[in-house]
UniProtKB/TrEMBL annotation, chains A, C:
Keyword line: Oxidoreductase
Protein name: 2-oxoglutarate ferredoxin oxidoreductase subunit alpha
Segments forming domain Pyruvate/ketoisovalerate oxidoreductase catalytic: 19-184
Domain of life: Bacteria
Xref: Pfam families: POR, POR_N
Membrane-spanning intervals of the chain: none
GO biological process: response to oxidative stress
GO MF assignments: oxidoreductase activity, acting on the aldehyde or oxo group of donors
Organism: Desulforhopalus singaporensis
From TrEMBL, chains B, D:
Entry protein name: 2-oxoglutarate ferredoxin oxidoreductase subunit beta
Domain of life, source organism: Bacteria
InterPro entries (UniProt xref): 2-oxoacid:Fd_oxidoreductase, THDP-binding, TPP_enzyme_TPP-bd
Biological process according to GO: cellular respiration; small molecule metabolic process
Ranges for domain Thiamine pyrophosphate enzyme TPP-binding: 65-213
Keywords, in A-Z order: Oxidoreductase
GO molecular function, one term: thiamine pyrophosphate binding
Keyword Oxidoreductase: yes
KW Oxidoreductase (keyword) present: yes
SUPFAM superfamilies named in the record: Thiamin diphosphate-binding fold (THDP-binding)
Length: 611, 350, 611, 350
């Protein structure tokens, strides 16, 4: 049998039961790989319940820095009895199967292409620890210790982490370190030279960090100056507000008074959550609401109000698998249409697409500037994979000279000195954006009435067709202005002949880049564009126009970005071929590579490439 | 079709201590039906603000959708207004209030807007005790959509459509007390004398002041068979107390017979002076208030006046312990932790 | 001066104050024209308030049977002091200005190309009637009487209507008839030969009827077997339920018990309204909810549930001008995207587009068959113009042998005799549609659990990627099946060379047909397709493919049907040129004609027609 | 991951009068946390249905979203179930009930599902007195989203997150009584003896029967500082009455001391027999019920039992006067007026 041999390039899957405390052990493992300087990408695949169901944690190690999900499992740590069978069969030939050998492996586990590594976790744990609650937790730490040996990772990387984690309660560090050692020792005694998978320290990661997208967005909101948040619990967006709350407690408490410089309100539902954010934004606070699909559906009416009354609210949609309640703990990019065209009538919203935590931070902070500059809702389109999993990314940074762009707001002085008649919805600059005022600014000037009904340039109610129409057309001018302000796409040109291009966004990015590398190895050189915002800049359209054949890679069934591309611009639909993954798991490089290869194959057999 | 009244100011118009006249508290000309109760309620609001010497621009006016919700356009045109979507005034008001605790907030809603589509937001704004003067102009019907029964229409009450309402009504005052409100009153648009001080007390109150104003719809629900008609209300009204609102600045001058008055000291130092019909009634006792309402209802009477006050409940900002500075006034310097802190965070993520 | 002379072809605009009782007088006029056998098309242009604001009633008379709105006003009946000036200036040269001459015309009414007809309405009325309430109403009837003379309409047509209307209260008919006579007599005494506009009896209308779309839809729901309706008041959909209630009282009361065979529930909001309809549909009743834009936004989440759990609910959207509260009393076709892609995640809904009341009836009834056959929400896209205005259309008819298509439902017997294992979401026929059961059918078989979460073919909860994916793909199979079942488009081929085509839907139809006729007069022969449903049949795509140049005519800003056409099919966007009216007033033949002419002009100047 | 328990049936299992065993009333294996209060409540529902000889397939189970709302999968697997969207169970149940008045409807919700997002639908289902057995499994937190405070969490109560809840709680029973409910009870998942008859009474009741079941969340809200923990509830519970539910078929056998019992005759002829702690309490008096709840609350006690019944209020079908035949059973012949009628309508439109 050929066992898999690999240095810094493999996938380990941990199969656990949820609610059993495995998460922190598995995180400990991923972070140790990271600390060894090796690019790592962990993905939590968990059920929509609280305790007792199967949960998986898939850790990809990639010395080459490919951070997307890869197909195939090289090693399984099989701790969950319910799924042992499946986990065993999912292994690649030559893979490793680590299990709790306190109980014997069932007889039908008879693959001859799998290396079985038994560690009697329960027994070892019981022998060492008496507290039953601790036992359950430390069982997991023991297999981490064993992995340290099997994969050749310095134990210190783990013990350091533990010490750091329990800095304030060193008593708790002790048993954890002990458990690590037990695992390490047992493996070294029984499994010398068993495992062909190795982690070798590198310095590939430079100053990179390992962070989840939801915390990063929350930090972006802190740095971006958000002061009011309305929210309602919903997986996978809840951790945005948890992080925002945590960072607020660090950064937003007035030293002298102990009072808070943010107001975070758990609303009664999503309608109220966005209502709170809109009310605050109207009153001059930067505000946001985090949510996921069902929340977006409920926010529809209010999004239409914010679009039409021109209120700068920020929404972050941590997308999960729909439709309806769907798969609440699975990932998708399937809310694009719903967000872009939210609400009845002619509405359009600006979307931003971060691809990693650093961008969650950057676009998160930028969203507040954009919202206030454009006076319109900005929806940041993250997803469960990005939001809830840890990702390697470049370090966060902030230019201390940066000023918030509060947009066109008239101060008391402005109102005093202004000569022209001011109109809330009067476009004096020709960019479709008008001046607003905050309530309470001036005793006699600048008050206006905000409404979701049709209004004149001076914000009076009107049913005059021409006035209404002019207002709607101005909003299209603003839409064009938006194109000049939203983050520009990222392009990679490797084929100057511009034959084939890949277009993608958000968490598809890493898998797409890897697929490009693989395709290139197979002789297919491609260019790429990572889209970062809707509406699309001319740059996006030109890029597509210049290529012969364009693949649009998405994580939804209905090719939603493609719809936006062709609906909003005059791109021929026949030019855009879709590569769609919508099974709820993060898209893989394998999938993209094979799909594109197949489509290219089919195209060339058909013998005609249209110009 | 909104138009403002001519700015001409008669030199002899009475001025308040800010030097403003009542006209300075008015808004655009109403487009409601002639005789609509909502217009009288609007007038009471104008009067209260004028008498309280409120700076108009320090008020923010919020509303939902309905004839009632249009009224913020008809008062205080120096104030910012926000006519939101149907039933969602409370959340908009909550956000606005969070952004700037220094303004006064008045929220206007209707019975359809509050008791049906807005029930959830109403209940939770009460629960949070948002610092808001919440006025529900209650006509027992959906005026703007042409007179359907609302959830506050009494069982058997019959409006212009001629079909007796078969459902039980929701008593918004009882509900508010049940949900933990801190200031609950009922007024009648036809009784300005009672209504103006109720509104003033609401402005002085810290927390959610809810006023259910019976405000007849002359077009759809002013029939002789409707329990929300002018005539019916006038005949069945019962005042639990009369009411003096004494702003902080003024001294109490009048004297009342022992036991017939109750004094409530408001958060801003103003005093409410209640002259009660029945000296046993205690306006700060929740159960007593509900029982009294029910009792009168059983007699076929509609109890009005200040029904309940509780000055002990903290308003939302106090619950959240937010900064005393308006959040919307904070700048980069107050809000952005800066790059040095960020680098520490980076370090903790390695 | 050239006064306008015309037989059976002109537009009269009545300018009134709302809440003043003018509606019934104006209706009386329109119906008399209809009874004279002359095609007529009245449009109510009313404000979003109850009393005291300007309201217009525009009556187009068209012997040629053009029923869309036409530009220009030939005669104004100016009863509203607030708008006299505007009404005067809006008149076409040579037009007629009828006003209440009890008060003198202001001095600046100095057009020399207008014929002024003064009738002292107030004075005549006061002289004759003493009851002040009656006075206000009858003032309007007097001008109708005057018009009868001026336009040469038999007075009997009016008096008959009045008699019919007050059949049960003949006492009330009397003063109305008196008022008609007063107006008639006054005009005949003072304005002999003044008016060049004439109505001449024809028999153009055959057995046509004059009806509003909302009543027609309600009747369709009655005939279609709807038994449960949830609703929440909103203009302009409220009259759907009013009519449904009225017809229910006639047709749905059990003779013996006096009990009702429908349950109509005024819900607390639109979320509850559609929830009620969905709950009823799940339980085997045909059910619906009528609403308008803001309601659609609020129904988003539930629409996604009905799509994913496959529940046959019918929604009728009487579209009004958006976004947000917009112009609640103006018309638009701007909820297409919002309805087609309602809710987060990958969702798509079937839409039907009636163009006149007869189709409101027919598609209304058909919607229930389609919903149950396809087990999915069906949204009937009407609009304010269609729903609230009277339209001339062919008579309603019903085939008494018609059976309701209740779709794939297993009865007790089916469950007893069925051998295969039944699965609620198991596609045994390959059409994407599965068998369902009603609750309570069988003591031990056929019970299942309906959920908005991901489910297996046997309706068990699952998070298995492949199972979820297969379910989502089956829904696409069903989508294809829908294409074979929805109402087919209506095509008119006048140019066999298939050069230019017009594509439109709903209330754009009449104006579009008229524009075609006008274009043809100018030498531009065009073909047309009236789309009646989404998803689009191959027929639609082929039609577009076969034409060189296609104009898509819509009443929204963002070309929403065009977006659906190119997103769902591979039509090149450059082929589809938009003709968009979105000012809230019904689109006119003038507008379409001029716009298309201009676009054709521009195209030919540019010198290139692309193949 | 739903799986049904093995169908094997022990020959000696007790059978009810339909010849069904308790197993025939069970559902799939629960995936809730071991020890979750909701599982005990589920068991009580199973027990009540079994004892009442309900035909399982004549029940329809509706729910919202939450751990609690998952439970309909864990009982009565011969019944149809509908796990709708968050907070909207009442409207789905309303529609279903309208379509077929002959089934029994049980609606399961959680405190998050009912008191926050579902507040409006809760209030209005009550107001319409929908014939529904509405059970709220109340754990004072959002279990499924990991333990945030809900609107029923008591002020100061502290769950696993360790932060005392700063907001006042909503008492769903008081609220239900205020909103005009016709059957209101409170149970505790840990007291099956009391809970089973409460559920039975609810099934016999015509109209909306609301049961607030305190049902601890062992994972997030079972701390010693939480007022919704097993321990706290056990120590602070107070029963207003004990309770016999006597179905129509059986005769009353027991005899009680004069004045200590109250008999309530249910719509279907069943009888509820209350054995009261205090003979003065009248379970059919609204004010008395609310006062009693408040009194106990003031003493720091949680009142359980049957709190209020009113058999006078008509249920929705009676209000609407709908056909006694299930609407979903009507066919073309019942529903379609036919072409002749249509031609008459055409005529009237010419
Ligand atoms: C989401 C939504 N649904 C329905 C409507 C239609 N609508 C406008 S006003 C109104 C009712 C207003 O009733 P109420 O709040 O009592 O105000 P009133 O007109 O009686 O003062 C309704 C249902 C709407 N604007 N938005
Ligand atoms: C519209 C919407 N918002 C949020 C959620 C997320 N969510 C799922 S369950 C739940 C709370 C459930 O709390 P509760 O009803 O008390 O049930 P428990 O889990 O405590 O039994 C929430 C907020 C959702 N599913 N849908
Ligand atoms: S319809 Fe009724 S509520 Fe509305 S403005 Fe007229 S009188 Fe007032
Ligand atoms: S999280 Fe709480 S409510 Fe949910 S199943 Fe576990 S114990 Fe029960
Ligand atoms: Mg009202
Ligand atoms: Mg709960």
């Amino acid at each position: 049998m050929n066992r898999i041999e690999s240095v810094n390039d493999f996938v380990i899957r941990f199969a656990n039961v949820n609610g059993s405390g495995s998460a922190s052990a598995n995180n400990l493992f991923a972070r140790a790989v990271f600390r060894a300087g090796v690019p790592v990408s962990p993905k939590n695949i968990f059920p929509s319940n609280i305790q007792g169901l199967p949960t998986w944690y898939e850790v990809r190690v990639s010395g080459d820095g490919f951070l997307g999900r890869r197909g195939g499992i090289d090693m399984t740590v099989a701790i969950n009895g319910q799924t042992m069978q499946k986990d065993y069969h999912d292994l690649l030939p030559g893979g490793y199967y680590l299990y709790d050998s306190s109980k014997q492996l069932p007889e039908d586990f008879q693959r001859d292409d799998v290396i079985v590594i038994g560690i009697p976790l329960t027994r070892l744990c019981s022998e060492e620890f008496s507290n039953p609650k601790l036992r359950q937790l430390l069982k997991n730490i023991i297999y981490v210790g064993a992995l340290a040996f099997l994969l050749d990772i310095e134990l210190a990387l783990f013990t350091d982490s533990v010490t750091r984690q329990f800095k304030k309660k060193p008593k708790l560090a002790e048993p954890n370190i002990r458990a690590l050692e037990i695992g390490f020792n047992y493996a070294s005694e029984h499994y010398q030279d068993t495992c062909g998978l190795t982690i070798t320290k590198t310095d590939k990661l430079g100053d990179d960090i390992l962070m989840d997208g939801n915390s990063a967005f929350a930090l972006g909101a802190i740095y971006g100056g958000a002061t009011v948040a309305g929210w309602y619990p919903i997986t996978p967006s809840t951790s945005v507000i948890e992080a925002f709350d945590r960072y607020s407690k660090t950064f937003r408490i007035e030293k002298d008074t102990g009072r808070s410089k943010v107001a975070i309100l758990q609303a009664e539902d999503e309608l109220a959550a966005i209502g709170i954010a809109i009310g605050a934004a109207w009153n001059g606070s930067r505000s946001f609401t985090p949510t996921s699909g069902p929340g977006i559906s409920l926010m529809n009416e209010f999004l239409g109000l914010a679009y039409f009354a021109e209120i700068p609210v920020v929404v972050v949609d941590i997308q999960r698998a729909g439709p309806s309640t769907g798969m609440p703990t699975r990932t998708q990019q399937a809310d694009l249409l719903s967000c872009a065209y939210a609400s009845h009538g002619d509405t359009k919203n600006v979307l931003l697409f971060p691809c990693d935590p650093r961008e969650c931070f950057e676009l998160g902070a930028a969203a507040f500037d954009l919202a206030e500059r454009l006076q319109t809702p900005i929806i940041v389109m993250s997803d469960l994979d990005l939001g809830m999993n840890d990702h390697v990314c470049g370090p966060l940074s902030w230019d201390d000279s940066r000023k918030y762009d509060r947009g066109k707001v008239l101060s008391y002085e402005d109102l005093e000195t202004r000569h022209e008649k001011w109109g809330r919805y009067l476009d004096v600059d020709g960019d479709g954006i008008c001046f607003r005022t905050y309530p309470g600014t001036h005793p006699t000037k600048g008050a206006y009435f905000t409404r979701g009904t049709s209004h004149t340039e001076y914000s009076a109610y009107t049913e005059e067709s021409s006035v209404y129409k002019a207002g709607m057309e101005r909003l299209l001018v603003k839409w064009d202005t938006a194109k000049t302000l939203v983050p520009s796409p990222r392009t990679k040109i490797r084929d100057p002949k511009k034959n084939i291009a890949l277009v993608f966004y958000g968490t598809t990015t890493h898998a797409a880049y890897e697929a490009m590398a693989r395709l290139e190895k197979r002789g297919t050189v491609t260019n790429s564009m990572r889209i970062r915002a809707f509406p699309f800049q001319d740059e996006v359209i030109n890029f597509i126009d210049q290529h012969q054949q364009v693949f649009v890679i998405e994580q939804n069934r209905d090719a939603q970005l493609r719809t936006l591309l062709i609906a909003e611009n005059s791109i021929s639909p026949t030019k855009l071929q879709s590569v769609l993954n919508f099974d709820g798991l993060p898209i893989t490089a394998d999938f993209i590579t094979e799909k594109i290869s197949a489509l290219l194959e089919a195209g060339s057999t058909a013998g005609k490439k249209q110009p | 079709m909104t138009s403002t009244k001519p700015a001409f100011r008669h030199p002899k118009l009475a001025q308040n201590s800010l030097g403003l006249t009542r006209k300075d508290y008015e808004g655009a000309v109403s487009t409601l039906c002639a005789g609509c109760g909502h217009d009288s309620t609007t007038n009471a609001i104008i009067q209260a603000c004028f008498e309280l010497n409120i700076e108009p621009h320090r008020v923010a006016k919020m509303s939902g959708i309905g004839c009632s919700s249009k009224t913020p356009a008809y008062f205080l045109d120096r104030s910012h207004g926000f006519n939101a979507v149907h039933g969602r005034m409370p959340s908009i008001a909550t956000g606005a209030n969070m952004a700037n605790r220094d303004l006064l907030y008045i929220g206007i809603s209707g019975d359809g807007d509050t008791a049906s589509i807005g029930m959830g937001q109403f209940a939770h704004a009460l629960r949070r005790n948002l610092n808001l003067n919440y006025i529900c102009m209650n006509n027992g019907c959906y005026g703007l959509t042409k007179g359907q029964d609302s959830a506050t229409a009494d069982m058997g009450s019959t409006g212009k459509r001629g079909i007796p309402n078969p459902y039980a009504s929701i008593d918004l005052c009882e509900l508010a007390i049940e949900l933990g409100a801190s200031y609950v009153a009922r007024g009648f648009s036809g009784d300005k004398k009672q209504l103006v001080p109720l509104i003033k007390g609401a402005f002085a109150h810290s927390g959610l002041a809810f006023i259910d104003v019976i405000s007849p719809c002359v077009t759809f629900n002013n029939t002789s068979t409707s329990t929300k008609s002018y005539e019916y209300v006038r005949e069945h009204i019962e005042a639990t107390n009369t009411f003096d609102f004494i702003p902080l600045q003024r001294e109490i001058l009048t004297d009342y017979a022992e036991g017939t008055t109750q004094e409530v000291i408001m958060h801003d130092g103003s005093i409410i002076h209640l002259h009660k019909v029945d000296s046993k009634e205690d306006v700060t006792n929740r159960l007593n208030s509900v029982n009294k309402l029910e009792e009168e209802k059983a007699k076929g009477r509609l109890l009005t006046g200040l029904l309940y006050v509780n000055q002990q409940i903290r308003e939302t900002h106090d619950i959240l312990n937010t900064s005393l500075r308006p959040l919307n006034s904070l700048t980069e310097n107050d809000l952005c932790p800066g790059n040095t802190e960020l680098q520490k965070i980076n370090d903790s993520l390695r």
